[in-house]
Amino acid sequence: MQFHKTFTIRFSYKCNQIKHILLFTFVNFSLFTFVNMKNNLSDTQFNQFRETKLSGRYITLNCIEPIIKKLDSEFKIEIEGNSEEQRPLYSITIGSGKFKVLMWSQMHGNESTTTKAIFDFLNYLQADGKNQTLLKQNFTFKILPLLNPDGALRYTRENANGVDLNRDAQDKSQIEIQVLFDVFESFKPDLCLNMHDQRTIFSAGNTSKSAVISFLAPSADSSKTISETRAYAMQLIASMNNHLQMYIPGNVGRYSDEFNPNCLGDTFQSLNVPTILFEAGHCDDYRREDTRKYVFMALLSLFETISENKDNLPAVAEYFKIPENEKLFFDIIIRNAKFSNQITDVAIQFEERLIENSINFNPKVSKSGNLNIFYGHNEVDAGEKELIIKDNKSFLLDNEIIKLTLNGINNLMI
Questions:
Q1: What is the DSSP letter of 323?
Q2: Cα distance from N-terminal residue to C-terminal residue, the chain
Q3: Cα 144 from Cα 142, distance rounded (Å)
Q4: Which residues face 380 on adjacent strands?
Q5: Is 171 strand, coil or helix?
Q6: Phi and psi at residue 346, in whole multiples of 5°?
Q7: Confidence (pTM)
């Protein structure tokens, strides 16, 4: 869909203890939005269960701890251990069913969307209703909602020691991973859910559809053998995809299944426990409040399938029909801009930074040239007008934008 309107992005950053507000404004250019999702799930319905105390991208232990402590008595709350910096690693257990689900989120501290969706799901379980009662009768859920509280505080992928916990499955050098393995061995799950966020760069296949949510049934060996347990994970993913297509058609992707024994999902799959990777992606909302809804919906669909349709699952072939993720998106593409007497395209990617307890999105030049095979979550047609980014010398990859001029007009203002 094409619009002619003013397009403004607001950035803030701090330099030498002075906070700057940046307005990135394009007037009367064509703005294209490639993500056009149907929103069939009533927001009113979802908002019954949405955990209102959690929003945005910066979710820390201080955010979730008060919520955990106020959960109903039917929830069993335990501290399974402490992080490298001695922050508690909580688990939440509910249900009395034979089918045991182990779920963990935010093992990468800056990936918080699924954490929000987990607390939405916990609110759902607290509500009165036949479906909730059946879930608690059929399942036992054990959830570690924030596996990396030290990284969450810093808004980093890694933990306090700079280690990527999802590459520590073999060494088990970090306390957080040791705790997760202890829980895995004692709980003996029938299904593991490894909950993550993915970057805005991913498309659902070779299309102009962003990957709002992606799934993976991780490989258990380098041959990518489809064992009975991996096949079951694939069938469950195919079922979730069938449901989500009614709401976000074409926006579900399949993550790469290259085997890495250092990853938790690959390791648990190799131990013959069906494991599913969730990757929450971009849904035209950088706070990912829409994406959390689709993760919540996927969880409900998954558990309904296990409860009621276990003998009527989709074929494994349906899993492979989900398009594999490709890296075809940038946050912004400026098309047909005149730079150094040439007509070119410029791609801008946001770098997420934690500043004063909030996440700021700082624009950086990511790529230039003919970008016809790529898509922008937002696009501007410069109409061959002159483009200056700070000065010609600073038009380099990974260079942060602090001033941008189109046709002699400053469009980025401090």
A1: P
A2: 31
A3: 7
A4: 31, 334
A5: coil
A6: -130, 125
A7: 0.88
